[in-house]
Amino acid sequence: MAVVVTAVLAVASCSPGGTTGDRRPPGQATAPAPQATAGAIAEPPPVDAGWPRWGFTHTGVSANNVSPDFERTVAGTLARTPMLQNQHIMGFGALNPEPRRGEFFWEDLDSRLDLMRESGAIPVITLCCAPDWMKGGPEGPTEESAWKQHLEDAPYPEHYDDFARLAAAVATRYTDVKYFMVWNELKGFWKDHSKPADFKGYTELYNKVYAAVKAARPDAQVGGPYIGFDSDAEGSSELRGPWGVVNQNALDAFAYWFEHKKGADFVVVDGASPTEAHELRPDEFGALGKFGAVTAWLRKRTGDLPVWWSEWYFVPEDGTTWDEPKRLAVQAVSMMELARGGAATALYWNPQAKEGPCVGCMWAPGTGEPRPSGTLVTEFARWFPAGAELEAVASSDPRIRVLAQPRELLMVNTADAPVSATVDGRQVTLQPYEIKWSGR
Q: Where is the composition biased (Low complexity) (predicted)?
């Protein structure tokens, strides 16, 4: 693979949502991104020159669901900084692709892939979920009630071959898509996270899909197992830190898949910094260390295969809300942790809407203009692709987090008060939760 991402020169300005900075061209990266820790920079993971690292997943609503003019507006903005874009084959904005055996419906996938092409994306497809007839339901278009009740059901074992054939058909139709993730969070294979997952069933499905896609498209890159690395306050797992303890059932499932897989071009996980009980340990910023710790654990145990974060989350799902500057600051630091940990890829789950308030959305529902979360993803793709050479730059006040490459510096104030500090030999003052980009 030889993916080239061209850096875009930005004009000195204040970005939306309290993000400020002065702009300089990033120049050509000369080495892959190293893993940065406090006081040390480890060897980088194996990545290809220009790999953007950052991107997002299209969900139930995206730019192609509104109007042609709206789609052109969003696509034009996204095309300024090419990044990864991911789409599921069923659900999350796509109708049943094979309502009857051998009868395909490609309209929704075609529409999403057209948007990706129009916006200059590096496209990714998630091979999930399965048509109803593969999991005990009827043939034909999916009924309205079945979307909520059965979308996340796994195909029955007797239909694993059918799903593998569908995956091969997808890969054959979309020859410009090179990257495929198999399934999503062990849906249907792990209904009770307090108990072991059906990792043998998932691995059997994965191996059939892997073989079918590689047979149809030898150039395709296939990864799994797309397991959620959930964590709790306590537990016996070896993967632990101040942020909590990763569920041993997740590690067992990963270990079985990794030992018994036919092959993998990259490994896929997802996870959240809050625990399953919605705790942020020791706080909302300290909890983000989980992303770097999990990435390091995976790199060590997989022989340094590229680690993909298919999703990552940082706000508790218990009704917690933060004002926008704080939410953005936490998002920015979470991305810093993924970069330092050497994650090869990180896909933002874009919670888009057609209208109304849209917290965390990448573009505004009414106008298609970039929103602050989208600006963050874009700026990280521009300045910190996987080929960026990270440099260890300290702040005299630890409340200001720093991520640096030779030509650009990102600073984030993690405090709810102004903070002054010396960063990279310069005195700076950042307002509460301010995100500041600065040329070096």
A: 26-40
b/e burial code for range 46-66 (CB count within 10 A of at least 16 → b): ebebbbbbbbbbbbebbbbbb
Amino acid of residue 354: K
Q: What is the side-by-side strand order in the sheet with 240-241?
A: 231-232, 244-246, 240-241
Cα separation of 366 and 379, whole Å?
23
pLDDT exceeds cutoff 80 at 38: no
- How far is the CA of 267 from the CAs of 23, 218, 239, 259, 420, in angstroms? 34, 18, 17, 13, 40
What pLDDT, on the 0 to 100 scale, is given for residue 413? Answer: 98
Boundaries of every domain in the chain: 13-22+42-389
pTM over the 0.85 mark: yes
pLDDT digits (tens, 9 = 90+) for 311-366: 999 999 999 999 999 999 999 999 999 999 999 999 999 999 999 999 999 999 99
Q: Find out whether the peptide bond into 385 is cis, omega within 30 degrees of 0.
A: no
Q: Does domain 13-22+42-389 have CATH number 3.30.70.1150?
A: no
d(CA 55, CA 327): 19
Rounded CA-CA distance 4/21 in Å is: 25
Measure the CA–CA gap between 76 and 82, rounded to whole angstroms: 10
